[in-house]
Design the sequence.
């Protein structure tokens, strides 16, 4: 049995830090630093997802362009082909998608509207909690005790 992404969002909340594609990379770095996050969802004026910018994108850009990158627009470093999921996506499916695509952050869309973001850490924690609950249930079954 797999847990839906909505369960992760119930636990961690639906807050998503965003940035516009036109803002400078330095602003994205500041927002990530202040928010303690590794990625921002890039949205347009109506809130539609245009891309995602991560620490990895910034580091890659710095390696190519030096500190001049910080004055360039987020659009020039963001990943525009964003993999997303829905609240009903299962954590097993999402873990596979993230592992295969080497993706650490996935925006959650509900009917096209941004409702959250899930990190690989969120998925791992959810899977560990699920496995612990299964182990506890099996142990109770085998020992004949009820919790």
Sequence:
């Amino acid at each position: 049995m797999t847990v839906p992404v909505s369960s992760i969002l119930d636990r961690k909340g639906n807050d998503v830090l965003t940035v516009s594609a036109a803002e400078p990379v330095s602003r994205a770095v500041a927002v990530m630093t202040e928010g303690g996050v590794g990625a921002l969802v890039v949205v347009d004026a109506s809130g539609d997802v245009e891309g995602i910018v991560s620490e990895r994108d910034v580091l890659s850009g710095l390696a190519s362009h030096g500190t001049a990158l910080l004055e360039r627009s987020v659009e020039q470093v963001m990943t525009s082909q964003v993999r997303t999921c829905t609240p009903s996506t299962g954590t097993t499916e999402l873990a596979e998608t993230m592992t295969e695509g080497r993706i650490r952050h996935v925006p959650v869309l509900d009917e096209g509207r941004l409702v959250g973001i899930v990190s690989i850490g969120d998925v791992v924690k959810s899977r560990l909690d699920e496995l612990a609950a299964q182990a506890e249930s099996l142990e109770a079954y085998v020992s004949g005790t009820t919790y």
